# Entry
Amino acid sequence: MTTAPSPPPSSTTDEVVLQPRFWVPLGVLLLAGACLGLRPLWAGALWLALGTAVMGLFLLLQTALLRLRFAPEALLVARRDTVIRRFPYDAWMGWRVWWPALPVLFYFREEKSIHLLPMLFDATALREQLDLRLPPTTPAPRHSV
# Structure
C-alpha cells in the first residue's frame, strides 16, 4: 500500500539544488576498463568495453550538466539554469532509492508515468528532501494463505 502524497511543509519554501556526484559514471568507466581485461578470453570484449565506455561518458556529461532542484511545489530537472522538466509533488504516487548502502538508482512514480534515474547527485540530500516533501512509499504487506 502506498501513502498519498501530502502537501510540502511550510518550512520547505526555499529551493534546494542537489550537488552532483560523479561516482556512478566513474564506476561505469571503470567497468569499461575492466572489460578490456577480457580480451584474451573473448573477442567481443572490445565492443563491450567500447559500449560501456560510451555509456559512462554519457553519464559523466549528464552529471556535469543536469541538476535536480526541489522547489516548493515540484521537483525540477534543469540543464544549467534552464528547467527542462517539472514533476509536481501532488502527482507523485511514490518514490524509492534502490540499494541504500550503495545508491545507484532513484525511482519515482507519478500518476501517469514511471521514472528511473541513475544516481548522478547527492543521495543523502535527495532522501532528506524527499522525506521533507513527500512521504516514502511502503510496500503492501504480503498475506500468507
